[in-house]
Design goal:
Largest sheet of chain B: 6 strands, parallel
Number of domains of chain B: 3
Distance between the termini of chain A: 28 Å
Structural class of chain A: mainly alpha
Number of domains of chain A: 1
Radius of gyration of chain A: 15 Å
Order of helices and strands of chain A: HHHHHHH
Largest interface: A-B, 35 and 47 residues
Helix content of chain A: 40-55%
Radius of gyration of chain B: 28 Å
Oligomer: heterodimer
Number of strands of chain B: 19
Shape of chain A: globular
Strand content of chain B: 5-15%
Largest sheet of chain A: none
Strand order of the largest sheet of chain B: 9-8-7-10-13-14
CATH class of chain A: Mainly Alpha
Strand content of chain A: under 5%
CATH class of the largest domain in chain B: Alpha Beta
Number of strands of chain A: 0
Number of helices of chain B: 23
CATH architecture of chain A: Orthogonal Bundle
Shape of chain B: globular
Helix content of chain B: 25-40%
Amino acid sequence: MCDQIIRLALAALVIGVSFGSDSVFAASAEKGKAAFLKYGCWQCHGTQGQGSVATSNGKVLAPDPLPYEAFSAFVRSTDGAMPPYSVNVLPDAELADIHAYLASVPKAAEYKNIPLLSR
Amino acid sequence: MARKNSRPKVDRRKFLTGAAVAATATAVKSSAVNATGAAGATAARMPSALPPNAQTIAAETTTPQELSRIGGVAGSDFMVDVIKSLDIKYLPANCASSYRGIHESLINYGGNKMPEFLTCMHEESAIGMAHGYFKASGKPLMSLCHGTVGLQHATMAIYNAWCDRVPVIIMGGNDLDAAHRPPGVPTFHSAQDINALVRDFTKWDDTPVSLQHFAQSFVRAYKIALTPPYGPVMISLDAGLQQEPIRRNGEEVYIPRYTPTSPPQGDTGAVKEAARLLVKAQNPVIVVDRAARTENGVRLLVQLAEALQARVVDMGGRMNFPKTHYLSAPISAVNNADVIIGMELSDFWGVVNSYIDNGEHGIGINRSKIKPDTKLISISSVELNTKANYQDFQRFQSVDVAMAADAEVTLPALIEAVQSAIPNDSKAAIERRGEAAKKARTEGRARTLQLAALAWDASPISTARLVMETWGQIKDLNWSLVASSGNVSNWPNRLWPMEKYHHWLGGPGGYGVGYGAPASVGAALANRDLGRFSVSIQSDGDLMYAPGVLWTAAKHKIPLLAVMHNNRGYHQELMHVQRLSNFRNRVANLGNDLGPIGTSIMNPDIEYHKFAESMGWWAKGPIKDPAELGPAIREAVAVVQSGQPALVNVWTQPR
């Protein structure tokens, strides 16, 4: 839990530093988690952005998402398998929240430290 | 009341009048004895000094009942003799009046053995069970159904069997004679040609009009179904023919002898040319889908791969190639290949091309994944059995060498040709290729395991955790993953050490949802008799098509561990509607759910564990905390080992 709080704080700080606007400064990982569900991101990427070979070509979003500018550009204009989200569908503020949420997801344990995976 | 007057004097079918029957089979003779006995003509009388029992009193004081109305041996008894000649062990079916004649013969005359009737609650379940049974055992089952409404229920499952190249023998009851069949419901349930309903996705069908015709048709149907490429076959079974007696007018009925047909092997010249290309290649890749039909097919593929040190991409239609082998490779291996040999691929185009649904004009992005000069070789028996209407043959892919042949039976010749064609000065390069494959395999394995660690403690539970917690409880057993419905990101095939043919039975073939549950039960039935432990990853949507198959499993004591991948939605469709919403610049309307309206299975959540319990299963759930999953599955495994089916309902991530 402590680790998650630190990550949330860092995520908010990173986004604030990156953009410096009031709206982005207010990016909230908590709201981002709700937006991640509301806008259907979880459907292909899983609720923690873990991805899937079946639905996101194995793309892992969290806890190290693309820098916000690249992230936003991709979401707005992708021409690949992922459908683009226009600003009409997903407002900027909520996109920033989603980015903050992805950055806040705890880093996964090393597989070697998980008994079922290390055998 | 008799359904129709079927005494010999009433010749419903003139063509039958001359069809004589002398019982060539002992079984037919014995049925005649049974018929006599049933009529009571030779029943032993008790000594008169003894007081009469109730049966005797009834016989002497009441109006004698006509105990056998057909005046001879039922035609359906002979049909049972024919069926028994082919050693079909089970007959999963939902009962129907249009096949009551043969139903009665099967359970009474036939003693309900070889085949044993298994009570099903939906025809789709019955065919799905036969589908799964074959893949686990290599032995076909037959099913019976109403020729109209029952066959309509069965069609999707038959289509799956067709696409998955699985033999199933289906017989549909039908009352052809419009002048004599009962009016009302039985006539609603009759048709001129019931087989037309499934003709586009069965290998062969027939409508026998005499008992001898039936005998020929049934043996022929079995033979055609069991000749690669395998496939379902259909026989329309006239109700009158089942119920009329065998006539003895001089001509004998007989049971044709069954001789398996040798599968078609690749042309010698084409095999040599394929070997020449493979040996000359710098980076040959083998891609297989349903290449192995047996455990021997797996061994042969290993021999071919090792002879070439070629990486093998297993598309997973069957367990073709051991996942633990260093030459086992992901699909990306085709990208740098200079020769690709595809064996029994359901979609060669899809192996060497990509399609991205990006909404552009509805046609998406189509790109080649391979180098322009890559040579392609195909061995596919399905080329010998293509039909026009249903599009299971997929997009057309041009290849350089095409063999219309069975892959498994062609492999020995191909291996020999490859071994003969390898020049001595190439052996070192081939060995280096193997070393590179080992390195790639080790690195790829580590990446896969780290991906599995993502969201390991998430709730809903990650599909990787679901799969590995299951593995943790079955790894020391002789396990068989009989189905994996609903898409768990292919984790079992990526993480479990699948090495034997029965470790993975493949998917539905036609992707008709509703296959997982019945196919699992059918495969578990086969595995029960073979001493294997059956496990399935059971999705929510799949189970709800015909959940009555759970009752069938409990009824017939079929042990199966079903671990539910309950993501509470039709997830494929959920993503499609989301995608279309985005393409059209609209916010998807979720209603009160987590997915677009019409795609979620929530509010209320289905208590799968409760309805499984109500049908005789041990069940537990819903499991939402990943820490509780392993212990729950451990309990379920113990139950299954005791001979019962068990279900664990797990709330999971979408994929």
